[in-house]
Amino acid sequence: xxxxxxxxxxxxxxxxxxxxxxxxxxxxxxxxxxxxxxxxxxxxxxxxxxxxxxxxxxxxxxxxxxxxxxxxxxxxxxxxxxxxxxxxxxxxxxxxxxxxxxxxxxxxxxxxxxxxxxxxxxxxxxxxxxxxxxxxxxxxxxxxxxxxxxxxxxxxxxxxxxxxxxxxxxxxxxxxxxxxxxxxxxxxxxxxxxxxxxxxxxxxxxxxxxxxxxxxxxxxxxxxxxxxxxxxxxxxxxxxxxxxxxxxxxxxxxxxxxxxxxxxxxxxxxxxxxxxxxxxxxxxxxxxxxxxxxxxxxxxxxxxxxxxxxxxxxxxxxxxxxxxxxxxxxxxxxxxxxxxxxxxxxxxxxxxxxxxxxxxxxxxxxxxxxxxxxxxxxxxxxxxxxxxxxxx
Length: 392
Known about the structure:
Blueprint: E1 32-36, H1 51-55, H2 65-72, E2 76-81, H3 115-122, E3 128-133, H4 139-145, E4 148-151, E5 171-176, H5 179-189, E6 201-204, H6 205-208, H7 213-230, E7 233-236, H8 243-269, H9 275-284, H10 289-309, E8 315-319, H11 336-352, E9 356-364, E10 367-374, H12 380-391
Parallel strand pairs: 1-2, 1-3, 6-7, 6-8
Antiparallel strand pairs: 3-5, 4-5, 4-9, 8-10, 9-10
C-alpha cells in the first residue's frame, strides 16, 4: 500500500488509508486524485467521518463505480480524504479527526462535508478530488477554498457504493484547481454529450440580497466577467415567497431522510458524535408527517418554478455562498442567520435536482468567494463548458 502523501494539511485519512493505481491509460492518465471517505474501495472499510461507523461496518466487497471510472480513465487514487461526521455538516470541523487546513484562507474552515477533498486540491496534494453534495458539500468548500467544483444533476453520476445521507438529494461531485480539468473529469463521469448553446443568462437578484454587504461589492467584478463572456444578464427573482422558505422545505425533507437512513444505526450503536451533528440527528426525530407532506408540496413547486426559469438552456448566475469562510472554531457560535442565508442559496439546486458549478472568481478580505452557474437538469456538460470559457 502506498504511503499517504506528504500531508501537513490534515486532508487525508490515516484510519482508512488506501491507495489504488489507475489503469495508466486513458484521458486522466498521469493525474492523481483523492476520494472522500464515503466511497467504498474493495477490501477496505469506509469511515463516513465517524469512528463507530468504521467499527460497525465490514470491508467493502467492491469499489464504488464512480471511483472505478476514474481509475479506468488512468488516474491514480492516492488516498481517502476526510469528511464531516456522517456528512451532516458544512463546516469541515470533525470532532474525531480534526479540521483540514484551508490554504487559501488560513485560519478559516475549509467547508464540508467534502472538507478533505477540497483541502487536498487547494493545497496541491492531488490534481482533483471526488466529493459528494447533498445540501452544498461540494459547492460551499469550492467557494471557501477558491476551487472549481460541481454538483451534477441528481442521479447523473452513480452513488452506488457510497454512504447515503439523504438519497433524494445526495449527488457525487468533484473539485479541481482549473476549469479545464474539472471538465475533463466530467467527460469521464458524465459521458459524452452534444454541444448545446446557452440561452438567456439570468441574474438571481434575491440571491444577491442574501450576500454580506461587503461580499456583494466584491462580487461585482466577477459578475461583470461572466456577463462579458456569456452576454448581458437579465435580473430575475428566483423565489416569490422567499428563498428562506425554500430552505425550510429542504431542511425538513433532508432531516426526514436522515432519520430514515441513519436512525436505526444511531439507536442501536449509540455512537460518539460531535455536538452539532448529535443535535441535528436528535432534531430529525421531531419532524412530523404533516411537515414532510407540506415540504414535499413545496419541493414540487420549486421544481416547476426552476423548470420554467431554466427552459431553453437558460443559465442562472448567483453567489455560491453569502460570504467568505468563517473562522475555525467560530461556526458553533456563529449566528443562525449565516447558516440560514448560506442554505437559502445552496438549497435551490438541491431541491430541484439541478446541476450547479462554482467558479472561484471573486475575493473578499483576501479570501476566495465563489460565483455559481445553475442550469436545467441534464445540462451538466453545458455548465462545465461555460466554466471553461469564463475561466479563459
